[in-house]
Give the backbone structure.
Amino acid sequence: GQSLEQPSEVTAVEGAIVQINCTYQTSGFYGLSWYQQHDGGAPTFLSYNALDGLEETGRFSSFLSRSDSYGYLLLQELQMKDSASYFCAVNKIIFGKGTRLHILP
Amino acid sequence: GAGVSQSPSNKVTEKGKDVELRCDPISGHTALYWYRQSLGQGLEFLIYFQGNSAPDKSGLPSDRFSAERTGGSVSTLTIQRTQQEDSAVYLCASSLGPGQREKLFFGSGTQLSVL
């Protein structure tokens, strides 16, 4: 079957750095995306990796290792507004169950 | 439009009734996707349109679910003979094209409650 695994919850302190991991098992792979969803809101695009390596977009970075079927999202200088759920997705159609990020002041 | 628009935002229906959910994608976006999200869960892919064609409808959970897209724009998702397990938020997303690098823009969803 096809699946994505990511932690259900992560807690971090404001101003710190947090990493959210995602491992996938899919038949066919084109790219790994990350989306943010605040409670009651629509998912919004954060980042995309098609090739191995790190992609940086402001405070957010995303990493992919195709050989390990693994990626992560790195959030730096955490702000309270980053409290949300984060989803990894493969090929735009297979989504993980999401990681709820709690940020402590 | 400026963003992806979905209607209605909320729908309460009785078990056994049919419902239609509408999605207006961003103008010029050729790819359109439907997903379902149950409370606290991830997104479950339902169907993908490229233009008016649906090359991937593998996620439709049963033959009670159908979708169409007309004029390469508006799409409707129809659920016939609704069941309580159909209760969820139905999300629509569009992207400029079908390429994997093209990011998805989501609507705010339709919260469907089947009583």
About this structure: The first strand of chain A starts at residue 3 and ends at 5. Residues 81 and 87 of chain A are 16 Å apart (CA to CA). The interface with chain B takes residues 4, 30-31, 33, 35, 41-45, 48, 50, 87, 89, 91-98 of chain A (CB under 8 Å). The mean pLDDT of chain A is 94.
